[in-house]
Amino acid sequence: MERGQNRDVAPSYLGWSIFNTICCCWPIGIAAIVFSCKTQTANAAGESAQAVDASRTSKILNVVSLVCGIIMIIIIIAIKASS
After folding, report:
1. What angle do CA 53, 55, 57 make, to 5 degrees?
2. How far is CA 31 from CA 18, 39, 74, in A?
3. How far apart are CA 36 and CA 78, in angstroms?
4. CB atoms within 10 A of CB 65
5. Is there a contact between 12 and 32 (Cβ–Cβ < 8 Å)?
6. What is the model's pLDDT at position 1?
7. What are phi and psi of 24, to 5 degrees?
8. Residue 6 CB: number of other CB atoms within 10 A?
9. Which one of 23, 53, 55, 78 is at 20 to 30 Å from 43 when CA atoms are compared?
10. Does residue 3 contact residue 25 with C-beta atoms inside 8 Å?
């Protein structure tokens, strides 16, 4: 690697976004995939500030999607158990 080419790469969370889209809450998961792709594009273009912002948004959306999915699973189990 040449000098001056060290730059931090923001994580895209694309795998987590795809998992959440398939297994948890697909509307929020799709938004997370969009921001994951924005993160990858910004990383490739060298725009670290935009990449960090999109990465942070993707992470928040993934956490919200996961929590929604867990809550939905608990509600479904409770409904099934009560009937």
Report:
1. 70
2. 10, 12, 23
3. 33
4. 25
5. no
6. 45
7. -115, -90
8. 7
9. 23
10. no
Question: Are 36 and 17 spatial neighbours (Cβ–Cβ below 8 Å)?
Answer: yes
Give pTM, 2 decimals.
0.85
The pLDDT assigned to 8 comes to: 83
Instruction: Going residue by residue through the chain, which has 83 residues, state the pLDDT in tens, using 9 for 90 and above.
Output: 455 566 789 999 999 999 999 998 899 999 999 999 999 999 999 999 999 999 999 999 999 999 999 999 999 999 999 98
In sequence order, the 6+-apart residues with CB closer than 8 A to the CB of 69 are 20, 23, 24, 25
Dig out the tokens for 25 from the structure: 């809450």
Here the tokens at position 59 are 């992470």
Q: Is-contact 35 61, C-beta < 8 A? A: yes
**Residue 56 corresponds to which tokens in the numbers above?**
């942070």
Q: What is the pLDDT of residue 83?
A: 85
Query: Tokens for 52?
Result: 């960090």
